[in-house]
Specification:
Elements: E1 2-11, E2 14-19, E3 31-32, E4 35-37, H1 44-56, E5 59-73, E6 76-89, E7 99-103, H2 114-128
Parallel strand pairs: 1-6
Antiparallel strand pairs: 1-2, 1-4, 2-3, 2-7, 5-6
Length: 132
């Protein structure tokens, strides 16, 4: 399985999502949570910090593993590792990411994949209940 990280970035009652550029190899034009690949011999946490800096220009200071999920995409098996980004420096901006958007629970239908909608909804609920 190909390991990937996914950052769950919550501000208030909204979660950050991105519309991926049409030029991407995977998921072109789709709306999802910020994500990236894990390089060889790189820890999941280091991959998360690197990808969030490269894609969004933020420095993740504190993160916690939320869940992991196998996923089949374009005939390849991936393992997505979701992390709650609890503290970061900087304001998320589109560097490598496509268009950024902050989504409320009611707007989560904009996310392309049902599994990400479910996980984002669960993370938002826990953050609003402060059970993180």
């Amino acid at each position: 399985m190909i390991p990937c990280i996914i950052g769950i970035i919550i501000k208030g009652n909204k979660v950050l999502a991105e519309k991926r550029p049409e030029t991407e190899t995977y998921c072109k034009g789709e709306v999802g949570l910020p994500a990236g690949h894990v390089e060889q011999k790189e820890s999941l946490e280091k991959a998360l910090k690197r990808e969030m800096l490269e894609e969004l220009g933020i420095k993740v200071l504190k993160a916690r593993h939320f869940c992991s999920d196998p996923f089949l995409l374009q005939g390849k098996a991936f393992k997505f590792h979701y992390f709650l980004c609890l503290e970061w420096l900087g304001k998320p901006e589109s560097i490598e990411a496509g268009k950024l958007m902050w989504l409320t629970k009611k707007q989560l239908s904009k996310l392309t994949y049902a599994r990400q909608r479910f996980i984002a909804r669960r993370a938002l609920t826990k953050s609003q209940n402060k059970v993180m």
